[in-house]
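Quick note —
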Amino acid sequence: MTDVSTAEPRATEDKPTRRITSLEVLCVLLVVALLGQSWLTSWLDVGSIQTGATIFVAVCVQALPFLVLGVLISGAIAAFVPATALNRLLPKKQAAAVPVAGVAGVALPTCECAAVPVARRLMQQGVPTSVALAFLLAAPAVNPVVLVATNVAFPNNPEMVAARLVGSLATAIIMGWLWARFGKAEWIIERALRRLPEPQGRTRWKLFFETSRADLVDAGGFLVIGGLTAAVLNVAIPRSWVDTLGEQIVLGVIVMAVLAVLLALCSEADAFVAASISGMPLLPKLVFLVVGPAIDVKLFALQTGTFGRSFAMRFAPATFVVAVACAVVAGLVFLGGIG
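Predicted structure written out below.
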C-alpha cells in the first residue's frame, strides 16, 4: 500500500511539462503581424523609422558575411589546429608575441565581427590572452582589403593609408602589452577561456560544424543588438552637427572618435564615409578610421557576449583612449599636422 501510494505522485512529478518553443512564438508574431498589417504600416510609415530600419539592415547585412567567415575560421582552428602548433609559432615571451600577433592581422581580411570569435578560439587553444586581443584589434584595421579601400577613398591623400596602418597597429600592440601587464583572467568569463578537448580522428569535421554553429548563434544575437543600437544613434544624431566642426580641430577629433563608436561601420566601408564628410580636416577623419575598427557599439556588444561584461567594461574604454592617442600621433607624423 505504501509503495503504490508513493509511486503515483512520483509518476506525476516525472511527467514532462509543456514548453513554448521559438517556432510557436514566431508563428504567433506572424499572425499578429498579418492581423495588424494596416496599423503596422501606418506606424512604420515615418521617415526616421524607415531610415533607422535601413541602417539596421545595412549594418547587419554588411557584417554578417564577415561574421560567418570568422566563425568558420574559429571552427577550423578548434578542429584542425593543435594547440601545440600555435604555441610553437609564437615567441615564448608575451612582449614579443604581441607584435607578432598584430602583424599577423595583415594576412587575414576580416572585419571586427569576425575577429571576435577567432580571438576567443585562440584563447581556448592556449594562446595568451594579450596575444589574442592584439590580433582582435589588428585584423579588422590593417588587413589588405581595408588598406586598399582607404587608398581608394582618399586618392589625393595616399599618406592616409600609412597613417591608418601605423595608428591601428600601434593601438593593437599597446593594448596587448597593457593587458599583459594589468589584465586579469577573472575579468573574462570562464567559458571563453575553457580549453577544448583535442579531437580524435573522424570527429574533427563534426567538431568544426558544431563549434562554428555555436559561435554563429552566440555572436549573431549580439550583432543584432549592436546593429539596432547603431541604427537608433544614427537617426538621433543630426548630420548638421558634424558639418559645423571643420574649424575646431580638438572638438572635431573628439566628435569623430565618438561617432566612430556610435555609427558602428564595417572597417571595409568606413573610409568612404569618412571621406564623404566635407569640410572636416584629415586628422579627425583618421581618428574616425582608427577608433571604429577598435571599438564601436556593435563590437562592444559582441565582446560583452563573448568575453563577459567585466571584460568589456574595462577593455572598451581603455581601447578608445589608446586608439585616439595613437591616431593623433600617427596623424601628426604622416599627415604633417592637423590639416
